Amino acid sequence: MALGPRLSRYDAFRSRSHGQGSLVLHWRRDPADDLITYAVAYKNAAQELVGSLSRAAGSPDGRGYAILFLYRHAIELYLKTVLYRAAKLLQLHGRMTEPWLRAHHSLPKLLAAVRPVLDSLPRKPAGITLLAETVEELINDVNAIDSGSYCFRYPITPTGEASHDRGAVVDVFVFAERVDAALDELICACIVLEEECTASVALRQTVESCLAEGGDVAQLTAAPDE
Asked: Which of 12, 35, 104, 156 satisfies CB 3.0 to 4.6 Å to 81 for a cystine?
């Protein structure tokens, strides 16, 4: 159906109804805040495919490839969300950080980048168990199979070699169970860091308002018993 002259590069895929299929691709002021939206979307899509696969008979080939890629990309996006939110929290405390989003897809490198940022926080938020052995072990095991986010998408590497050993087998359900457990840890870290960011912004706004009104900032930061 023709929609008339195109006003943007997205018009080729628009409908007149703006109904159930309409997807907003960028709606937050800072597009980096949408990292969590993408992470959740890939995780949910993977879990829905696992559910449909568990109810079907036969081999997982086809849906299985998509499940492995969706889960692997979800891990990457959650790691980048944690890194972004931790760096954002540091900036709220007036500390500079290196660019949080790297131009690579290495899960171990992303996890390694998270460590110093978390260690630099003035106060490590309670509830973050990101460096639990289960998370690091899972990341290393996934990286051993797909180190550059190619092997679950293509049968050959960028250099033309086979992505996997001939006859290699992965149980999709075992893979999903382990990734889900690791994602629970990453999701917890994302939530805690966002709560810390929100609290820090609120405190800064309160302090600025207090200063503007000539109030005593010390009373705002004093302990309840003082």
From this structure: 35
- CA 77 – CA 42 distance, rounded (Å): 9
Which pair of tokens denotes residue 2?
């023709």
Q: Write the CA distances from 69 to 63, 77, 81, 143, integer angstroms.
A: 10, 12, 18, 12
User: What pLDDT digit, counting tens, does each position of 57-96 carry?
Assistant: 777 778 899 999 999 999 999 999 988 888 887 776 665 5
Which residue type occupies 153? R
**How many distinct helices (H) and strands (E) make up the chain?**
6, 0
Domain boundaries, the chain: 30-196
Cβ contacts of residue 109 below 8 Å, gap of 6+? 102
Geometric angle at alpha carbon 20, from 76 and 22, rounded to 5°: 60
